[in-house]
């Protein structure tokens, strides 16, 4: 296909196309990074390269101008994401991340008000309370002295409790109880077998056939757990007339208002709660893990970040929403982790109509998957000199202003970008500020460096654990 079109591509193998090593020796980030590196020069003037997911051709966008067209300028051609969903057999798959067309647009505009800065400010005290619990949990584990802790799991428990509290109004208790059901279920969704990863990709490519065959990607026990969690919460709130300023309340309103298909059913509401939970905890906790890892490697940067927290707290007298907004260096450190280790390694779209690629004789045909290789762009020396170096100064106002904004895409871009961006950044900032203010982190002799990336996780994350020496300050 690509050869006939005269488009540079990487030779595929049957039946996986370019995905042969996925979940085995490579993460999807490695695959797209190597295609990007090999073909960037050869695609000058064209702006894209060819790949294969199984037997299907996929367009990989390389030029940032074309990235902007796909995500923003020509959004009307690319409003859907190449994600499989099957509401009939797997109700939890019918969520905002996977929905298409008008149904997606209507729900997106209804859910957007949940994430305004005003709402973030209201949720701030809840997140702070979980951060305090996180601090107590670390303190009691290490006792008076320094101790070695596996921080990746602890951070995942922190974000699980935050999102459980803010989205469901539920105490997930995973900081207190590592075996808490919410944590167990969350883990199960992201840690997949190679077969599970391949099934996910295959179902995204052969959506109609899979729907006819009744293929599902959500494990039965996970589906039962989340459907019951939402049903119980809704029933409890209705019975006891509970009013809260959280995501669940908004969903309950959408279940009451509107007519016909406009009104959310219990299953549809559960699917939205499910995706907010999933999208909310793993991404943020991996971003924090990598940030902590880099700051443990570079003690001077860690000290600078700690100083930034101390100064803001001294100015405001306590950890307030306003103090948090002033912690610019913490934000720079998190952004640099999101650059170097973007939790979502790629963005996916489908062309919903034939798309003539500007300035070329080519057309992306209707139905074809389009991939934007975020991880590869974030490691391109043309945008980030010495890209494997961790350097928060890349996100100073001055340096940022000189860079093409489409070279930084951890939350995607355009109308279909991450709806939870503000919330994700807020919980990461609060978590990092609390950790650095109270503890010092150094490398542990029992861990090998540099850390490896897990090929079994859809999110770009550390293989095994992040063992660090943690010392009270
Ligand atoms: C550091 C944290 C986070 C990262 C790195 C992240 C990243 C992303 C990315 C890359 C996308 C796809 C964007 C695109 O295709 O252009 C996305 C979509 C989405 N994210 Fe996040 N996310 C984070 C936190 C959150 C949180 C906290 C929530 C909810 C509470 C959330 C909910 C969603 C949803 C619902 C979508 C689908 C939006 C749509 O299709 O309309 N995310 N996220």
TrEMBL record:
Alphabetized SUPFAM superfamilies for the sequence:
Cytochrome P450
Q: What is the protein's membrane topology class?
A: Peripheral membrane protein
Q: Where in the cell is it found?
A: Endoplasmic reticulum membrane; Microsome membrane
List keywords of the entry alphabetically.
Answer: Endoplasmic reticulum, Heme, Iron, Membrane, Metal-binding, Microsome, Monooxygenase, Oxidoreductase, Signal
Superkingdom as given in the UniProt entry: Eukaryota
* Cofactor(s) required, per the database record: heme
Please tell me where heme binds in this chain. 418
Tell me which GO cellular component terms the UniProt record holds: endoplasmic reticulum membrane
Which GO molecular function entries does the Swiss-Prot or TrEMBL record give?
heme binding; iron ion binding; monooxygenase activity; oxidoreductase activity, acting on paired donors, with incorporation or reduction of molecular oxygen
A Pfam family of the record is p450
Question: PANTHER family, per this entry?
Answer: CYTOCHROME P450 (PTHR24292), CYTOCHROME P450 6BS1 (PTHR24292:SF103)
Assigned protein family: Belongs to the cytochrome P450 family.
Q: What is this protein called?
A: Cytochrome P450
Origin species, per record, is Anopheles sinensis
């Amino acid at each position: 296909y690509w050869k006939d079109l005269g488009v540079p591509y990487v030779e595929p193998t049957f039946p996986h196309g370019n995905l042969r090593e996925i979940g085995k020796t490579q993460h999807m980030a490695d695959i797209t990074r190597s295609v990007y590196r090999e073909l960037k020069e050869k695609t000058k003037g064209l702006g894209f390269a060819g790949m294969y997911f199984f037997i299907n051709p996929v367009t990989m966008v390389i030029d940032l101008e074309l990235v902007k067209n796909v995500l923003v300028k020509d959004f009307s051609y690319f409003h859907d994401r190449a994600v499989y969903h099957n509401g009939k057999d797997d109700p939890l798959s019918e969520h905002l991340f996977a929905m298409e067309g008008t149904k997606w647009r209507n729900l997106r505009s209804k859910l957007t008000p949940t994430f305004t800065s005003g709402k973030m400010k209201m949720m701030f005290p809840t997140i702070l309370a979980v951060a305090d619990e996180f601090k107590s949990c670390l303190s009691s584990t290490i006792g008076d002295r320094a101790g070695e802790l596996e921080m990746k799991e602890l951070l995942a428990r922190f974000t699980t409790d935050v999102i459980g509290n803010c989205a469901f109004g539920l105490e997930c208790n995973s900081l207190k109880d590592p075996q808490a059901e919410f944590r167990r279920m969350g883990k199960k969704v992201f840690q997949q077998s190679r077969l599970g990863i391949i099934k996910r990709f295959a179902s995204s490519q052969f959506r109609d056939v899979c729907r006819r065959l009744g293929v599902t990607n959500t494990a039965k026990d996970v589906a039962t757990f989340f459907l019951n969690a939402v049903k119980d919460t809704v029933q409890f709130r209705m019975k006891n007339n509970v009013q809260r300023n959280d995501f669940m309340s908004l969903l309950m309103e959408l279940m009451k208002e509107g007519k016909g298909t406009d009104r959310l059913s219990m299953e549809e509401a559960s699917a939205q709660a499910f995706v907010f939970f999933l999208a909310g905890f793993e991404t943020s906790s991996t971003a924090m893990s990598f940030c902590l890892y880099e700051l443990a490697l570079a003690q001077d940067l860690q000290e600078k970040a700690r100083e930034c927290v101390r100064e803001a707290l001294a100015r405001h007298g306590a950890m307030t929403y306003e103090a948090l907004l002033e912690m610019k260096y913490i934000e720079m450190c998190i952004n640099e982790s999101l650059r170097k280790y973007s939790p979502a390694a790629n963005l996916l779209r489908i062309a919903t109509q034939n798309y003539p690629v500007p300035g070329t004789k080519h057309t992306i045909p209707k139905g074809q998957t389009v991939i934007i290789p975020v991880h590869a762009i974030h490691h391109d020396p043309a945008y980030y000199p010495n890209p494997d170096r961790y350097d928060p100064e890349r996100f100073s106002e001055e340096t940022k202003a000189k860079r093409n904004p489409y070279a930084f895409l951890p939350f995607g871009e355009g109308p279909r970008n991450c709806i939870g961006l503000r919330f994700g950044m807020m919980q990461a900032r609060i978590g990092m500020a609390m950790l650095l203010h109270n503890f010092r982190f150094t490398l542990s002799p029992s861990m090998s460096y540099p850390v490896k990336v897990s090929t079994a996780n859809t999110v770009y994350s550390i293989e095994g654990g992040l063992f660090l020496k943690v010392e009270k300050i």
